[in-house]
Design a protein that fits this description.
37% of the residues are buried. By secondary structure, this protein is of the alpha/beta class. 23% of the residues lie in helices and 31% in strands. The mean pLDDT is 95. The strands form five sheets. The protein has a seven-stranded mixed sheet with strand order 5-4-1-6-10-7-11, with helices on both faces. A five-stranded parallel sheet has the order 12-14-16-18-20. Strands 13-15-17-19 form a four-stranded parallel sheet.
Length: 324
């Protein structure tokens, strides 16, 4: 079955307090939306559509080189309405995966697993100690999903549920098309909720399949700069841990920033306050001093880079680099 992906990126992002569209704020040197598109591309879909609204022209101009189709949501009338703008471009027999432009760290393997059930409506969930702000997964006495209730429409009993809807789901296009046509906006927000298709699937006897993520960071969205900083630090520590497990000594993982891809040999030593950006290749036994920026560089074995250097767009053989 062919895969089509819809990425919702039309939100206003008011809590960012910024003229820049939320999905263009950067994590690890790349716009949030670019992270999501790159993940989508790794799944090799037939088509990727980005539904844009606020600041759409700026978003398109920034990411114009990426292989996506842009679909405008002229009025922000909810997630269901947003998906409805893109569904006409998708064949009935395709699997449709719905992602979000402000959720940058989703694991591609979890998405592959979500799309593997072709006859059901597949929903990605998470369990949170503090689920405030998220839609809750409501199950019946047998543990089957009945519906999703958004926070603003939930009573005290529903709010006590800790299993939340991440918003990420996958299902066949023909079913999705029918459900979208039957959405209404009879809720506190007067919006067309995508989550209302869950109850429709139950009515239609379509199985609801849920996958629950083990690491909630991968489904966390960005609504303000505090959340952006939290995800940035989580991502950077992940990258640092991967390097250390591969044989790199990092003096302080909290003071290393990776803003690209790093290929590293063994017995490398990286001091504090180092930024590695773009495509980086580090040979064996490389030493990098503190307060150094390296961008798009290939560093040979046994190179020592002293503190306070800025290195860009070079290939360096064995030597000692320092600032005068």
């Amino acid at each position: 079955m062919k895969l089509s992906i819809i990425i919702l990126a039309a939100g206003l992002g008011k809590r960012m307090n910024s003229d820049l569209p939320k999905v263009l704020h950067c994590l690890a040197g790349k716009p949030l939306l670019q992270h999501v598109i790159n993940t989508a591309m790794s799944l090799e879909p037939e088509i990727i559509q980005v539904v844009y609204g606020h600041g759409g022209e700026q978003v398109r101009d920034t990411l114009t080189d990426l292989p996506v189709q842009w679909v405008k949501q002229a009025q922000q009338l909810g997630t269901g309405h947003a998906v409805a703008q893109a569904i006409p471009n998708i064949a009935d027999d395709n699997m449709v995966l719905i992602l979000y432009g402000d959720v940058p760290l989703i694991n591609p393997q979890n998405l592959q697993n979500l799309c593997s059930q072709s006859t059901s409506l597949n929903v990605l969930t998470a369990k949170l100690d503090n689920p405030t702000g998220y839609g809750r997964i409501v199950r019946d006495d047998k543990g089957q999903v009945k519906c999703i209730v958004e926070e603003k429409d939930a009573d005290i009993t529903i709010k006590a549920i800790q299993e939340i809807n991440t918003g990420i789901m996958a299902t066949q296009a023909n079913n999705l098309r029918i459900w979208l046509d039957n959405l209404d906006n009879n809720n506190s927000q007067k919006e067309y909720y995508l989550t209302d298709i869950i109850a429709m699937a139950v009515t239609d006897n379509i199985p609801i399949h849920t996958n629950t993520v083990t690491d909630v960071h991968e489904v966390m969205g960005v609504n303000n700069r505090v959340q952006l900083a939290d995800l940035e630090r989580y991502y950077q520590l992940q990258q640092a841990n991967n390097l250390m497990l591969a044989g790199v000594t990092i003096q302080d993982p909290n003071r290393l920033d990776i803003r690209g891809t790093v290929q590293a040999g063994y017995d490398i030593n990286i001091d504090i306050n180092v930024i590695l950006a773009g495509n980086i290749s580090l040979g064996n036994r490389v030493k990098i001093g503190s307060n150094t920026v390296i961008r798009n560089a290939k560093i040979a074995d046994d190179v020592e880079i002293l503190s306070n250097c800025v290195i860009e767009d070079v290939v360096i053989g064995a030597c000692l680099l320092y600032t005068s």
